[in-house]
Amino acid sequence: MASKPESVAPSGLQLYSKFAFAGAVCCSVTHGALTPVDVVKTRIQLDPVTYNRGMIGGFRQVIANEGAGALLTGFGPTAAGYFLQGAFKFGGYEFFKQQWINQLGLETASNNRTAVYLASSAAAEFFADIALCPLEATRIRLVSQPTFATGLLSGFTKILKNEGVGAFYSGFGPILFKQVPYTMSKFVVFEKVSEAIYRQFDKESLSDGSKTAINLGSGLIAGFAAALVSQPADTMLSKINKTPGEPGEGTVSRLVKIGKELGFRGSYAGIGARLFMVGTLTAGQFAIYGDIKRILGATGGVEISK
């Protein structure tokens, strides 16, 4: 009787495409689901005088003034933008980890894994932001100016026609300052927390539900850390995309002016809403990412933890 052929683990492009797909889904689903929180957070950042009642009060103000539908403003560019960003971020993170392993060797990479996590996540996020920036600029314009356009396509087209391609990347500097430290802290804290938890258990004997729970808990802590690190740049990103700059005004000069206007306290406007948002979505992302990898048979990943 012929023996049953063993399944071959995915590798190369097949493996990284599964990482990218899992990352795209987890980011798109979580960011899309939290669009209402993002709307309130952005309003608090852009108009703290009006929206000065915290996250719950902000929800009530938006609903009272514009109706419940306003809480879904920017859903299209959010879901589409973070689908692309998630593919580059998670797929790229695994890809760049493997490149460091190839360069350093598995043992050296494992002994210096914090540096590998930092370098891999920074490189992945850089390319992810190139894909995200135009859609994030459209989202912020829709949220900050509710009458600007009716949705993703009309808003994107209007910015492109009236202001040119450069308008989509006016916030590229702030988005890098926001997303690169955010992603670096997010992945490093997640890796460290989950590694500490798994030291207490036999990973192979844990159920799928237990692994998902560990991903959720580790992701929640990672999200809190990432939110605190990236909050000032997130506020500046909202400000710089709210309206076009003055004629001849460069991005750097705009950032300096916005920074002076905000100050330290202003930079952390809306931090309560963002802690809730980022903690929740990061926990959800790592849980969904791990589950999809498991379903697709790509659970091995590029592991260098001890």
CATH topology assignment: Mitochondrial carrier fold
Provide the succession of SSEs.
Answer: HHHHHHHHHHH
Low-confidence stretches: 1-8
Rg is 20 Å
Task: Outline the structure in words.
By secondary structure, the chain is mainly α. It has a single domain (12-296), classed as Mitochondrial carrier domain (Mitochondrial carrier fold, Alpha/alpha barrel), CATH 1.50.40. Helix content is 76%, strand content 0%. It contains eleven helices and no strands. The protein has helices at 12-33, 35-46, 54-66, 75-104, 106-111, 113-144, 152-163, 172-198, 208-242, 251-267, 271-296. The radius of gyration is 20 Å and the shape is globular. It starts with 11 loop residues before the first helix and ends in a 10-residue tail after the last helix. Mean pLDDT is 84; it is low at 1-8. One of its GO terms (biological process) is mitochondrial phosphate ion transmembrane transport. It comes from Petromyces alliaceus. Pfam families: Mito_carr. This is Mitochondrial carrier. It is a multi-pass membrane protein.
Topology:
Blueprint: H1 12-33, H2 35-46, H3 54-66, H4 75-104, H5 106-111, H6 113-144, H7 152-163, H8 172-198, H9 208-242, H10 251-267, H11 271-296
